[in-house]
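debug: dumping io for the single-chain case to check the tokenizer round-trip. Nothing else runs in this session.
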Amino acid sequence: MKVLKPGGTVFVAFVSSYSFVWDYLAQNPQFILEEERKAQLEVLFKHGNCVGQGFTDKFFMRPKEVLSFFEQFNLEKLHVLNCESFLYLREVELLKQSPEVVAAWLDLAEQACESKDLLSLAELIMYNGKKTGE
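debug: decoded output
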């Protein structure tokens, strides 16, 4: 943040702490029975944010904590987006539908992308802010 000039904008994407839960449900429901996966779920529900090794060095943040995290910086919030919509939970089935059905679902997802109430369904959350002051 030190190099961001006043009036400059920042875009930060977070992997939601719930992302792997939705991925397990959509892609590999049987993972719920594996001990390693159960341990990951336990960490999520007991401790919240998750730091460590994953597909990369990871930091998974709870959706409800994104805004409070950025309060420590001199930023004006412009947007907080669910940038991987709830549609991925049914992507395979959705893509088999008519173009009209797909378009209607995409329209709904676009309307919902900034809903605070639906951030928990996001795998990826993007914060967009503008630096204020010095």
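debug: round-trip ok. The first helix runs from residue 19 to 27.
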